[in-house]
Design a protein that fits this description.
The complex is a heterotrimer of chains A (316), B (293) and C (320). Chain A is an alpha/beta fold and 316 residues long. Chain A contains 12 helices and 12 strands. In chain A, strand 1 and strand 2 form a beta hairpin. Chain B has 13 helices and no strands. The two termini of chain B are 43 Å apart. The chains are: A alpha/beta (316), B mainly alpha (293), C alpha/beta (320). At the A-C interface, helix 9, helix 10, helix 11 and helix 12 of A face helix 6, helix 7 and helix 8 of C.
Chain lengths: 316, 293, 320
């Protein structure tokens, strides 16, 4: 349903994102993982045509959404798509909600805009939607303002907004980072159920490998603006070849016995302005050789996975 | 794992100074250059001025701009250029001294109020706000009534007029900084309140206060000129831009240069100071912090 | 003397409001917390936002004045100390803060920030500060050449290393770590945790580790205190003891397994955390607890030994 091919993004002269490709089917969850500055959120923004707002532009590649080419789409048509067939869930719910409007009328207006419903039809659908998101007391919630609700509830409302116009594709950018663990678990389970119930395609952008393990079908691992490895979630966790992917999994303290060393990755995550030459990971890589600092490794297909590395690590 | 960073050289350190960076733009160069020029003129007035500012020559009164009186002479035949040059001394020094007094008092009050809080803060801020509710000129008149007309009254008037601004600004900075983690961390190292205030809070609060002070010098020059114009400031024969304009009104149509040139100089000075202040705000990147007040 | 730190009935109430239009309300941020920290151990405090864990850290260091309770550090009654004695004692108890971005004065270089503790305690004259700074930087795994950089030139992980170095400058015995890795990237979090492990072995330190991340606490700590709404609801003496409090169990269940082959349904916790201004009369967790009975609604459970360890619950869960 969604096919992204060799996407590159530039802000002025810096290129924070290049050669990113992936595809996504209905009912599938694609995880995009990476640390800060890896370009994972930019990937999402470019999919919904919000890059120009941030001063960036797509310089290469294509985005094909259900047979429609998005990179050349006019802003007018994009507006119809956003919030219509593509829903977005952001990290901070407060940025997506109008603090001065009641929840109900915010949802109503999205529904009216995209589906052309009347006022009463829209409210009916709003209530239905809230109930389907397991929000107790839906009618009562409609008359509340965003600041009167907890973080978890606000995030549910944002999900409701994204779902209001019955989209086919949902993009969730770090939807649970700002939330407590128990609430994070609720929201992630909810997203998983929604994908199943509504046959949605979901792109889940996160830095949390455990969330990825629990939810995604396929995973793209990003580092310094490039997809460095991608494959099925089983492949990524059990069979990953790229030293960065392997190291990232070793950074999870979960279930690590006492005495087992938590290693981490030496050095620091590069910022957009100083992506290293060659393979961007080479200054932090234990296996780096001379070629790694010179030549950008190409993406190589390995059975059902893709990896960009000169020296493939042994499987973890 | 960490790239080696060299000690910054002297020129690099100079370049990182905000004042130097304010000169970076064209506007900064022009306005900053103008200010430096004015200060130099004020300092070297005795060497630059072609004539004595006080020497009268009634035979030469009201001469239009011409050689050797480039900007003409006034009703007593005094050289307008020379009086302007000496006037820079009065205007700049009175305004700058007043603002320095105002900043010192304002920062002390504001820092104490912000740091200790409570009733002390409420009393200080109420009193300070009260001074703000009187027009500058009224405060000046009160001082003139008490101390008599002259530069001392002018100075106090300017200082009091801007006291509230500096107190409020400093207090806002201190209150904001007090909640920063590095203050908590330093307290936890066992530092005394005096250490926290003098080493961390005040130095971090200084930049915005300096910039606002700089802008206030411009306003101070106008206030000094206003008081001089009304005869409440500098007393003759001390040259002051305001007093010069005042005496010029009598011969406005006969010899307009006597009033025009001081006016132009005041305008240029104030515009330069304000433009440079704006550049400094940009260089220090503290626009947000100034608005906080 | 085996206990480095003893905390008894520590309580902090925050008063709020009390203006012309509102009634004064008081909030129990920390409510009767007691525990000991043995010399050389790592005690973890875990809980969700608003449970009072960060306030607890600041109360122990008296950065916030406790409303009541006793604190004893190395046999010293902290509550009896005056301001000057407290300042002197701070040499021995240091803290590393969550936000590496604001924990160093932006006007200070790394070297100035690390030498500041020596100056505060009047030790700078008898100390070779340059040498100390270089040694401390090496100790926390940083290049001493970075001594002249300013905080904004460093990455989040490097800044956190600098604050650790600063905290270690005066050879403390207790280090309170308030979510030191919460705002760092995962790969850097792992670096900092292994640095803290190394430092503890080298310098014989004791840690009080505050975190919201249960799996990190389980990995890093010897003992775990679970907090909910200002109270300790369970005190796990070691990480292999199974949890008995339903809230701890929920926390464990909400933690995702980083293994795609071990996917499981998570039973979502119902309801919301009650407002700390308006605590329910019984157990604060009762409204959200599947096992709650009428007793839970009315009687506050005390933290007492049930089975193998301290639990504050009327109906502790049996070990699975």
């Amino acid at each position: 349903m969604l096919e992204v091919n060799n996407l590159a993004v530039a802000f002025g002269s810096i290129e924070p994102l290049s050669s990113v490709s992936f595809s996504l089917k209905r009912g599938e969850i694609l995880g995009i993982v990476g640390e800060s500055g890896s370009g994972k959120s930019l990937t999402a923004l470019s999919n919904i045509g919000l890059l120009p707002l941030q001063g960036g532009r797509i310089t290469k590649g294509s985005i094909n959404f259900d047979g429609q080419e998005l990179t050349t789409l006019a802003e007018k048509d994009y507006r119809k798509l956003r919030g219509g067939r593509i829903g977005l869930i952001t990290q901070n719910p407060m940025t997506s909600l109008d603090p001065l409007q009641k929840i109900g009328s915010q949802l109503d207006s999205v529904i009216k805009l995209h589906l052309g419903f009347t006022k009463s039809q829209a409210r009916e659908r709003t209530i239905e939607l809230l109930i389907s998101l397991r929000i107790p007391d839906a009618r009562f919630i409609c008359d509340r303002y965003p600041h009167q609700m907890s973080g978890g509830m606000k995030q549910r409302i944002v999900i409701a907004m994204a779902l209001a116009a019955d989209p086919d594709l949902l993009i969730a950018d770090e939807p649970t980072t700002a939330l407590d663990v128990t609430v994070q678990a609720q929201i992630i389970m909810l997203l998983k159920d929604l994908v199943k119930e509504r046959d949605l395609a979901l792109i889940l952008i996160t830095h949390d490998m455990s969330v990825v393990a629990q939810t995604c079908d396929n995973v793209v691992v990003m580092y310094a603006g490039r997809a460095i490895e991608q494959g099925s979630v089983q492949y990524i966790f059990h069979d990953a070849k790229h030293p960065y992917t392997q190291a990232l999994i070793r950074c999870i303290p979960h279930g690590l016995a006492k005495g087992q060393k938590l290693t981490g990755i030496r050095g620091t995550v590069p910022t957009v302005k100083n992506y290293p030459k060659g393979c961007a990971f080479h200054p932090r890589c234990d296996r780096a050789e001379a070629i790694c600092s010179q030549v950008q490794p190409a993406l190589i297909r390995k059975s059902n996975a893709v990896v960009a590395c000169h020296i493939l690590g042994e499987s973890a | 794992m960490i790239e080696h960073k060299k000690k910054p050289s002297l020129s690099q350190r100079l370049a990182s100074l905000s004042v130097i960076r304010a000169f970076g733009s064209k506007l900064g160069k022009v306005s900053g250059g103008m200010m430096i020029l004015l200060v130099l003129v004020a300092i070297f007035a005795p060497w630059i001025a072609p004539f004595d500012y006080a020497s009268q020559n009634l035979l030469n009164a009201n001469v239009a701009p011409s050689w050797p009186h480039l900007l003409g002479t006034d009703e007593f035949g005094r050289d307008v250029l020379s009086r302007l040059i000496y006037g820079a001394r009065t205007s700049l020094s009175v305004s700058a001294t007043a603002i320095v007094i105002s900043i010192s008092a304002g920062m002390t009050l504001g820092a104490a109020a912000g740091y200790f809080g409570g009733t002390f803060e409420r009393v200080v801020m109420t009193v300070v706000d009260l001074t703000w509710s009187f027009p500058d000129i009224l405060i000046a008149l009160i001082f003139v009534a008490i101390l008599g007309p002259g530069l001392t009254s002018t100075m106090f008037a300017i200082a009091i007029a801007y006291l509230a601004q500096f107190t409020r600004l400093t207090r806002a900075q201190i209150v904001r900084l007090k909640n920063e983690t590095f203050i908590e961390a330093t307290i936890n190292l066992g530092a005394k309140p005096s250490h926290i205030l003098l080493r961390h809070l005040l130095p971090n609060a200084l930049a915005p206060v300096i910039v606002v002070g700089m802008l206030a010098i411009g306003d101070g020059i106008v206030l000094e000129a206003t008081l001089g114009f009304f005869g409440l400031g500098a007393q003759p024969p001390t040259p002051s831009w305001g007093a010069m304009m005042s005496s010029g009104t009598a011969q406005l149509f006969l010899s307009p240069w006597v009033i025009i040139f001081p006016g132009v100089v005041v305008a240029i000075t104030v515009i330069s100071v304000n433009l440079f202040g704006d550049e400094l705000i940009r260089a220090l990147d503290i626009r947000e912090r100034i608005k906080e007040d | 003397m085996n206990n480095l730190l003893e905390v008894r009935d520590l309580t902090k109430r925050f008063e709020s409001g009390g203006g012309i239009f509102s009634k004064a309300r008081s909030m129990h941020a920390v409510n009767g917390v007691s525990f000991n920290v043995r010399k050389g151990s790592i005690v973890g405090v875990v809980g969700e936002s608003g449970c009072g864990k960060s306030t607890l850290a600041r109360l122990i260091l008296r950065l916030i004045e406790p409303s009541s309770g006793q604190l004893s550090f190395n046999g010293n009654d902290l509550m009896a100390n005056n301001a000057a004695q407290m300042r002197a004692l701070r040499k021995q108890m240091q803290m590393v803060f969550q936000d590496p971005y604001s924990c160093i004065d932006p006007r200070y270089t790394v070297a100035q920030a690390i030498s500041e503790p020596f100056q505060i305690h009047g030790l700078s004259k008898n100390t070779d500060l340059d040498k100390e700074v270089a040694e401390l930087l090496l100790k926390v795994g940083m290049n001493p050449a970075l001594a002249d950089s300013y905080p904004h030139q460093l990455s989040g992980g490097q800044k956190q290393r600098v604050s650790i170095a600063r905290a270690l400058a005066l050879n403390p015995s207790l280090l309170v770590l308030d979510e030191p890795t919460a705002s760092l990237d995962v790969s850097v979090q792992a670096q900092i945790i292994s640095l803290l492990e190394k430092l503890r072995d080298e310098l014989d330190l004791t840690y009080l580790f505050i975190s919201h991340d249960l799996s990190l606490v389980e990995y890093f700590c010897d003992e775990i205190l679970v907090m909910y709404l200002g109270k300790v609801v369970e005190h796990l003496p070691n990480t292999s003891t199974p949890a008995q409090h339903p809230y701890t169990r929920t926390l464990l269940d909400s933690t995702f397994e980083p293994d795609p082959d071990q996917r499981r349904e998570i039973i979502a916790l119902e309801g919301e955390v009650p407002s700390p201004f308006n605590l329910p009369p019984g157990c604060s967790f009762a409204a959200r607890c599947q096992h709650s009975t009428s007793k839970c609604q009315t009687n506050v459970p005390q933290l007492e030994v049930k089975g193998s360890h301290l639990v504050a619950c009327h109906h502790p869960l049996a070990a699975i």
